[in-house]
């Protein structure tokens, strides 16, 4: 059960990461501009 539940968490995190990847990329670009 522990492995199965952890697997479900990975799937949920993966789906959320896919949605936040574009947001994270824009945030990184903003940080680059701030550093420059």
Automatic annotation (TrEMBL):
Residues 1-12 have a biased composition (Acidic residues). Residues 13-27 have a biased composition (Low complexity). It comes from the Eukaryota. Residues 1-36 are annotated as: Disordered. This is Uncharacterized protein.
